[in-house]
Amino acid sequence: MLLNRSITTQFTIVFIVVLLLIVGSFYLVLESVYHSQLKAQAETVADNVDAFGSWVSQYGRVWVRDNDKSYLGQVTLVNAPDPAQGAPAADAAPPALWHFYSKNPALAQREFSEVVEKSASPAKFRVTSHNFMNPVNKPDAFEAKALDAIRSKHLAEYYEMLPDTYRYARTLYVKASCLSCHASADNAPADVKVRYGTERGFGFREGEVAGIISVRLPTRSFWSVATGVIGPVQIALLLSAFLVAILFIQFAVVRPVRRLTAAAGRISVGEQADLGVGRIARKSGNEIHQLILATERLRASLVLAIKRSRRTPPPE
User: Is 111 inside any structural domain?
Assistant: First the structure.
């Protein structure tokens, strides 16, 4: 049984059990902190994406020059010479043509997400909807699940920790600026209907759930996170704490108890034993010291009892 083992062995076993409990508690705390950190990072990404979309929305559309890969409308401007500089020479080059292409908030955010997807940034995002207009924005399995939960439970956000990624979804609501393109197919801009058709992406009303900002973050294993927090110095300090505790048990408990046990054995056979009482304060709060003082009182009582028994004549 454990109680029959030495105090040092019992303390070592108890220390290991306590250490395992501390490690378990540390795991739960570290996991909670890590999840909170991932969520905070995802919220920051969603905030930035939402702010970018709001910036585009306040202008209706943004126009970019010489980017005809993806756009809704286009205009061409002639870079005419400055009249103040006089008429151009006969052999002067013809005026330059500047081609501008328009992008609405959804298109601008999608192209932004594509740039981020190809970048070294670990955080990726995209904007999707249950009523997506562009097939490229079709929700994946997590996003479809998030959209269902958000719409049915009226959630502002939804997130999951998957085996290798942390997924986060922020709810987007329909704003008045969105209705010019997404309220009715009949009233939508012609270039929107030409590019995306009239089957999807319409019928929204202000205040309804428009979609989500979907954020994807890579995750690390517990051991990689733990090793980033605990290093050789922390392990050395933990081992030092164990060594200090073992030494304390040895010098403060085990050795005094052994000396007291040996002295009690000598007292039991009538031999003299030095308990070291002279080195102990009578009002000491140390339990070992109190045990030694009690043993000394017991020894004195036994000696006195033996002397009295020797002086008392035996009964006739």
Answer: yes
Instruction: Give the full edge-to-edge strand order of the sheet including 96-103.
Output: 62-65, 96-103, 74-79
Q: Residue 40: which domain range?
A: 2-81+95-224
List, for residues 173-220, the tens digit of each pLDDT value. 998 878 888 888 888 888 788 888 888 999 999 999 999 999 999 998
Rounded Cα gap, residues 21 and 13, in angstroms: 12
Q: Say if CB 267 and CB 236 are below 8 A apart.
A: no
CB 248 within 8 A of CB 280: no
Q: pLDDT tens-digit profile of 22-56?
A: 888 988 888 888 899 999 999 999 999 999 988 88
Contact 254, 8 (CB under 8 A): yes
Listed in sequence order, the DSSP H helices in the chain are: 7-57, 105-118, 141-153, 179-182, 190-196, 222-229, 232-249, 255-268, 287-311
Within this chain, do residues 71 and 114 fall inside the same structural domain, yes or no?
A: yes
Number of domains in the chain: 2
Radius of gyration of the chain from its Cα atoms, rounded to whole angstroms? 41
